[in-house]
Amino acid sequence: MKQRLLLILIFFQLALIANGQKVSHRTVNEYVTHVSFDNKFSGKSPAITFEKPVTSVSIRYEGLLEGTSIEAGDKKYRAYVDDHAEAGLQETALIIFDAAFSELRFSPGPGIKKIIHLSAIHAPTPSATAEERINNEDGCDEPEMILQSSWRQGLPAPTTSRSFSSTRNVIVHHAASDNSLTNFTNVVRNIYLFHTQDRGWSDIGYNYLIAQDGTIYSGRDPINGQQDQVIGAHFCGRNTGTMGVCLLGNLSLVTPTEEALTSLNSLITWKILKDQLNAEGIASHPLNPELPVIAGHRDGCSTQCPGNFTYPLLPGIRQRVQQTVDECLNPEEPDEPERFFAVGPNPAFTNLLNVRLPNDVTPKDVFFTDLNGKPFTLPLTYFNESSMQLDLSDIPKGVYILTIETPGFSTREKVIKN
Fold first, then answer.
1. What pairing do the DSSP bridges indicate for beta strands 169-174 and 294-296?
2. pLDDT tens figures, 200-235
3. Whole-number percent of the chain with pLDDT over 70
4. Would you give the DSSP letter of residue 27?
């Protein structure tokens, strides 16, 4: 079987050479294959085949990226500049597919001068689909999220070396991933493999990732520490004191969804409350002495991240977070139905006592006692759900307490029988 696969690869390499290009594969590890070309491009490449199906690719190149794409199946995936690439390194953002492919075609743009290599990621399909928890609402508590134990199943564990710091700045990013993708767990798994198996990092770079449907994923594994305080790899090598949050999608092309923004607000509100930060304040950082507490990646680094449609929203995001924080610290008393009922005549000069409650209140229990708590059972007639009549014929003159309990409250009224 292995000999047959080897012969197939040799055949395709010979075919590519015949078409003016030489393609070579190098297995980096179980999850990454590097593909290199001889750079004699003349339009779209012939098919590039892989022994293992490919779920995403990234391209290191020299030149201008405009017009470069990857064809997989019947879909063309456009390549975009990686806003998180190391200084001096030209690399595309991770191009994640919505299925696994064993054959790709590479179409370099006219400005491409040289391809260093194409990194192909092989993300295995998890044995079970991660439970997606969505619909986070503005709130005060830590929002629900999908944990590493769920989305990372079947992938290699990160290294156990961890560092922690108190947070002074929350840094907002975007993944620059394809906006049509809907399998968000697959997106996170590919980012994780790209960071750990191709770039060689100890773990995924972000503390949290937020999908377009509002699903939050816990990112870098804190092992036995706190998720929000583990130092990541997302802010130009100056990550101490920061918490990185990555919005999935390419937000230089579209505006973040309201679901994603709501989850972002919920997550940052919890963090601001937890660490007693000022959502609209400034916290100095080595990359920017005037760095906002809630900042975009570009506030400290030379990058377009978190995207041209996200960055202008940051002032409103800070304002919304601060408003939610204020509401959490000073909650308004909820509106309640009026806690009274009308009794008449009172003092009672007849044996019939009429009782009326507000229209939206339905009585559950009615109690009639003297001042010592001795109960009396009185004939009771209901006219409707909020109107009744008590017959006082069998009790002596005196002062009594009428108690009415409803599903929402209990209220009392002094009744005098003359």
1. parallel
2. 999 999 999 999 999 999 999 999 899 999 999 999
3. 87
4. E
CA atoms of 149 and 222, how far apart (whole Å): 12
Whole-number Å distance between alpha carbons of 336 and 312? 40
Phi, psi of 346 (to 5 degrees): -145, 110
The whole-number average pLDDT for the span 142-165 is 93
Tokens of 144: 């629900």
User: pLDDT band for position 263 (50/70/90)?
Assistant: very high
**Assigned token pair, 233:** 């790899």
- Contact between 92 and 61 under an 8 Å Cβ cutoff? The reply is yes
| First-residue to last-residue Cα distance in the chain | 105
Summarised one tens digit per residue, pLDDT across range 375-384 is 888 887 776 7
State residue 10 phi and psi, 5-degree precision. Answer: -60, -40
Q: Is 350 helix (H, G, I), strand (E, B) or coil?
A: coil
Question: What would the DSSP string read from start to end of 83-124?
Answer: TTPPTT--BBPPEEEEEEEEEEEEE--TTEEEEEEEEEE--P
- Measured distance CA(70)–CA(57) in Å, rounded: 9
Q: Is the pLDDT of residue 101 over 50?
A: yes
CB 242 within 8 A of CB 234: yes
* Distance separating alpha carbons of residues 268 and 309, to the nearest angstrom: 19
Cα–Cα distance measured from residue 182 to residue 120, given in angstroms and rounded to the nearest whole number: 21
- CB–CB of 271/322 below 8 Å? no
User: What contacts 327, CB < 8 A, 6 or more positions away?
Assistant: none
Closest of 243, 253, 183 to residue 212, by C-alpha: 183
Mean per-residue pLDDT for 345-370? 78
For residue 15, give the DSSP letter: H
Bridge partners (DSSP) of residue 75 are 72
Our measurement of the distance from residue 109's CA atom to the centroid of its chain's CA atoms, rounded to an integer in Å, reads: 34
Give the H or E element holding residue 44: none
Distance between CA atoms of residues 25 and 40, nearest Å: 17
Instruction: For helices 258-275 and 314-329, give the axis angle rounded to 10 degrees.
Output: 50
| Residue ranges with strand state E in 273-377 | 294-296, 342-344, 352-356, 365-370, 375-376
pLDDT of residue 264: 97
Q: CA-CA distance, 170 to 269, in Å (whole number)?
A: 11
Give how far Cα 133 sits from Cα of 102, 137, 245, 249, Å. 32, 12, 17, 18
Q: What phi, psi does 137 have (nearest 5°)?
A: -110, 160
